[in-house]
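ok here's the first one, seq then struct tokens
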Amino acid sequence: MPGYGFAQFEFGESLGGNIDNQSRSYTVLRKLGWGMNSSTWLVQDQSNQAYFALKALNGHCTQYAAKGVSWELPALQLTTSTPGHDPTPHCLRLVDHFFLPGKGSAERHLCLVTPLFGGDITRYARSSNFLRHPLPLAKRILLHTLRALNGLHECGVVHTDIKPDNIFFDITLSNEDIRMLLESDPSQRHQAEASYDGIVHAAVSQPLPLPTIEEFTKRTFVLGDLGSAQPIGQRITDHICPESLRPPEIYIGGLWDEKVDIWSFGCLVYEIVTGVPLFKTKEGSVGGVHLDATEIMLFQMIAHTREVFLAKQLSASPLAGDYFNETCRLKKKPGHYLYQTEHWVVRSSDGDISMDKAKEVVRFMRRCLRLDPADRTSTKELLQDEWFEDAA
């Protein structure tokens, strides 16, 4: 389909940008990876030889950005240079941006230049056979992520897509290490293949080597990928948050604000500590009653939070009537369940987390996991929680 293609860069190609009205150029060195909407490249600033990451949105998402449907660029600009805001090292920083003409089916690409990172915590966990992060490391990752969220909210930005894949860590490689890596493991291309754009030689994704476990525990973690970010007080789209991290107000069609990030963060606490998602998102049977995917999510939310939905929230949520009766109870009644979430934490840790520590994990989680968004604790208050006293 015309206009939808991915960026097609040549190794050694010079890409031009500008910042502060001064021209800057970057040399394409390697493809680091790609996702549904973009590809990421290792580039070198020709003026000072510094290495950066360049995220090139595909043609389709570049069109969205130009129309204001995608708010990634404004969000990055706000978090990088909001007057009076002291940027946290845990928020992604924008170095440069520019539009480039596309090749083939893509009309053009929005290119975002950011600092270079070593990878994301999901990739590291898979490569290192981590089923879960040890509690001290989990706290470090979560503390840094919460600082990032606080910075975003202070700048008027809601992330809406908090998940392990979007938590990055700073790089351990020096410029000399990268130069030697490029010499010993040259950038590669796939064999020629047919595509909508004709015959192409796509670049092979070659991520940077991962740090050792000892190095990883000392990294600075950064919340990245603002591709789904939205301004506080506006709702560009209601299709937000991964299903397992999606808050109740989205499922029942209610109004939402930055507190969606707090709910997602509470789910993230459990996932990073235990290695498994808190919520199951597929339809299934509970107590002999079949629940669809939304019903089973709402049921689990009640069971984990030990709360009930109140009439005030449900009456303001257009989809609530599909799932709740006039007494604010689920129409389908699988029984009365209150999950002992702390027992789940202990079982998942293979004995590494005591019941006392598990109770502290769950206590902290439940400050985030409140059915009514107004009851959720702010990022500033969460940062003062005693659970982080031994985190760095």
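and now the second one, same deal
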Amino acid sequence: MLPLRTLCVRAEWSFVEMNISYLLTLIVLGSCCCQGVLSCPHLCTCYYSISHTQVVCSNSSLSLFPEHGLPGNTTSLSIEFTNISSISAHHLKATPLLQELHLSGNQLRQLPADLLSGLPHLHTLDLTSNQLEHLPPGVFHHAPLRVLVLRDNRLLTADAHWLPPNSSLGWLDLAQNRLSSVPTALLQNLPRLEILHLSQNWLEKLPAGALNSLTRLKRLHLDGNKLRSLDPSSFQQTPALKYLFLQENQLEKLPPGLFQGLSQLDVLSVSGNRLRSLAPGLLSKLPSLGSSAGQGVDLSLNPWQCEKEVAYLWEWLRSHQEISVSLEDVQCAAPEALKGRPVVSLTAGEWEGSS
């Protein structure tokens, strides 16, 4: 056992250490306040932690960028659902440590080419629901973006030079715009892309080889476009694909071998197209289909021709009911005698005798 005097000395030293630590904390906080680090812009809310400073501005009366009072150590800036109509690189110079920039639901009509030039740490940029119609080449070159969301704007074209070669981007969302095409050259700059949203645009075709550089792609949304056909080789270079959404297009047939090599494909939706039959073997050798609970293949809301050409579809549905989504809506459109009947409910004699 230590002598009482030693214990007292240690206790006193611990008390001194505690007070020194407390004083240092006060000094640091005081310094931060003096330098404006703990300041916060008008109409915004700021959240502070040791490694993260978040600024949130979501007041609809905000019409100008809140550049005054922005903490210099801001890592996340959210200016959403305001009336701000412009933003510049000058505005963002006060936040050189910024990692996330959320600008959804504003009135932005354009972006300057150098917008991100002072943001070497920015990895997430969300521009959902603005009024962007055109973006200049190189606009996303200056930051190491991993997530870029441009959903629900008015973009008519996508520029091949928006992003730099060998971009770090892993998630690109261009859904709900007015794109009639997406340059293959743009996709070639995205070797790390895992998620691509192109749904609800005006796409009429997917050029052969357009996806060839996306070898890491796991999720592809092409639903809600005007696609009439797909090249047989469309997905041959996307072996990591797990989720493929093709619903609500104008596809009349799916070429044999379209899904060849997609051994990880888990979810496939082709509902709401103009499919009348499936090529024999189309859904064969896809061992991961339906591996997620409640997921699988959606073939509903197509005008299936329930005659001899329905044989493969009928056989596949009967042996894969557990991974068939909306099975009761996979119905015959013809012949008249079978119209409205779920394909899976037919007997072989019914469709064999309908030709």
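notes on #2: Residues 131 and 153 are 5 Å apart (CA to CA). The first helix runs from residue 4 to 35.
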